């Protein structure tokens, strides 16, 4: 705790300043100057600085001139880095650090030259509105989900600043919630069997490699990253099981997924065609197949279909096939039931099945009443 704290009003070049001095834990004398409008204002500033020194220590005072750009640099260098693991446990960084940096970039551009201590709840709220009004590179409406991601990284950076003692309060805590997941528009695009057939039939020539990838996504519900990181050592043709390694999953938990007959045949054909090593990637793709998939969906007139919709489709088909929701969650690698609920679509067929079940229930109830009346 700083000791020997004193405050005084000083005049420099005809301007009024508030000045405090104190002795830090190492015994060094330090001073802090703040420009004031007049002597009365200077006395108020002195009181504020001494109060801050007593309540929060010297860090907030020393960081009062700190710009957001300095915080951003610190956040990137110490948090938004590639994930590092000890065994199966992540000990540093982010798995999706490149995505995080991309989402954080517009935040930096907006707040870079603003003093860290001067950022208010209103500033953050204004940023949210500005971003929602800023169209995407393709001229489309920017989604709430996209802006929410940016705000999430801003909130995290400001929370780190608070933890480091550079600010006293996180502006996000000074008003209503700004990151509302409930406001995001959830995608409910399900690929029909007819659309699936069109996609698979067009996997020819330079896009023939997409066929096995699409079937894998549709029949397992695996995430895109899990599919592209899959190695032959993870595929067991005898047991017809795929092992998704913990390091390749979003939740860092290993899981097993059974192969359908058609997926097993597709993978066996791939394996026999190249006879790769067990450490080779199944689909021989380093990052993703975005360009090829975009060309494919345009060719068959399904431009609104995204790769993640295949996982959504797989989950919906499992549920419609009568697989219990808890088991579907385990196959998809979910740790919370609420996450699986997002994949449950109450479409027309579901609605008809519910109505039919209710009709049967009501009919049986009415019959039981009739039988009772007859007995009486």
List the helices and strands and how they pair.
Blueprint: E1 3-12, E2 15-23, E3 29-35, H1 39-56, H2 59-62, H3 68-78, E4 84-86, E5 89-92, H4 97-111, H5 121-133, H6 144-163, H7 193-201, H8 210-220, H9 224-228, E6 235-236, E7 241-244, E8 255-258, H10 261-274, H11 290-299, H12 308-320, H13 325-332, H14 337-341, H15 348-375
Helix pairs in contact: 4-6, 5-6, 8-10, 8-12, 12-13
Please give a structural write-up:
By secondary structure, the chain is mainly alpha-helical. The protein is 49% helix and 11% strand. The protein contains 15 helices and eight strands. The protein has helices at residues 39-56, 59-62, 68-78, 97-111, 121-133, 144-163, 193-201, 210-220, 224-228, 261-274, 290-299, 308-320, 325-332, 337-341, 348-375, and strands at 3-12, 15-23, 29-35, 84-86, 89-92, 235-236, 241-244, 255-258. Strands 1-2-3 form a three-stranded antiparallel β-sheet, with helices on one face. A three-stranded antiparallel β-sheet has the order 6-7-8, with no helix packed on it. A two-stranded antiparallel ribbon has the order 4-5. Strand 6 and strand 7 (241-244) form a beta hairpin. Helix 4 crosses helix 6 (144-163) and helix 5 (121-133) runs antiparallel to helix 6. The chain starts with a strand and ends with a helix.
Model regions low in confidence, pLDDT < 50 over at least 5 residues: none
**Structural class, judged by helices and strands?**
mainly alpha
Order of neighbouring strands in the sheet with most strands:
1-2-3
Order of helices and strands: EEEHHHEEHHHHHHEEEHHHHHH
Cα-based radius of gyration, to the nearest Å: 30 Å
What's the number of extended β-strand segments? Answer: 8
Residue fraction in strands: 5-15%
Count, helices: 15
Taken from the alpha-carbon principal axes, the silhouette is elongated
* Major beta sheet summary: 3 strands, antiparallel
Helicity level: 40-55%
Distance linking N and C termini? 88 Å
In round numbers, the mean pLDDT is: 84
